């Protein structure tokens, strides 16, 4: 039987979004801690997440003793994030705002953005503004860990992926597929859906998202335009700090480790 379909913004459903993306938090968490230890030139105690969403990682860092903060455009996601922080006894430290135009309350030791949120920024001006905001928010020697999908130039890029997660009586199956890609305009249209199963209802939430595309050369040029950062290492989504990668024409998954210069 066909599922009832709701056209909507998937980010307006933080409970389902958090289930899908929050279930495999530990690999990212451990990797980030390893990066802090290996690449930062200071003790990392205060961390920040632009596009923090539901706070799936912020809550884990708070529980591990870090001071955390974040920013996101979606008020429902921020509300969800702050509620979970407060339930655990932490300050509600996420705010609604634009990751191209913000300042942290105090300089932070590290920041991270690991699952493609950077590609929501549609122009070079926005991307540079974001990186400048991060640079101005970091202490010298601090890190920005930036993860995203590149557009490979020597192989056919991945066109579809799906995954699922369950918590108690709630199950969500997520699917992502490319509907259109214009490399000249650097715009990728991506369909996304959540198939939601509860004991009393089954339905599908469907959305379309616009991503900016980056080849290795385009991202390299962008990062070189931000003089406050040194690129210290690149990894892939295997999240193994002992296995840095060389980025080339066939590379799709990258995690760039940017360190703020002392001067």
Q: How is this structure best described in words?
A:
The chain is of the alpha/beta class and 263 residues long. The protein has two domains: 4-8 and 153-211, N-terminal domain of TfIIb; 10-151 and 214-260, 3-Layer(aba) Sandwich (Rossmann fold). It is built from six helices and twelve strands. It has helices at 14-22, 25-39, 58-63, 75-87, 124-137, 216-224; strands spanning 4-7, 46-50, 67-72, 94-96, 108-113, 138-149, 160-167, 170-182, 187-197, 202-212, 229-235, 253-260. The strands form two sheets. Strands 4-3-2-5-6-12-11 form a seven-stranded mixed β-sheet. It has a five-stranded mixed β-sheet with strand order 1-10-9-8-7, covered by helices on one side. The relative contact order is 0.17. The mean pLDDT is 94.
Strand content: 35-45%
Mean pLDDT: 94
CATH superfamily of the largest domain: Vaccinia Virus protein VP39
Query: Could you name the CATH topology of the largest domain?
Result: Rossmann fold
The value of Rg in angstroms is: 18 Å
Features:
Rossmann fold, 2 domains, seven-stranded mixed β-sheet, alpha/beta, globular, 263 residues, N-terminal domain of TfIIb
Structure at a glance:
25% of the residues lie in helices and 36% in strands. It has 263 residues and is α/β, with parallel strands linked by helices.
List the helices and strands and how they pair.
Blueprint: E1 4-7, H1 14-22, H2 25-39, E2 46-50, H3 58-63, E3 67-72, H4 75-87, E4 94-96, E5 108-113, H5 124-137, E6 138-149, E7 160-167, E8 170-182, E9 187-197, E10 202-212, H6 216-224, E11 229-235, E12 253-260
Parallel strand pairs: 1-10, 2-3, 2-5, 3-4, 5-6
Antiparallel strand pairs: 6-12, 7-8, 8-9, 9-10, 11-12
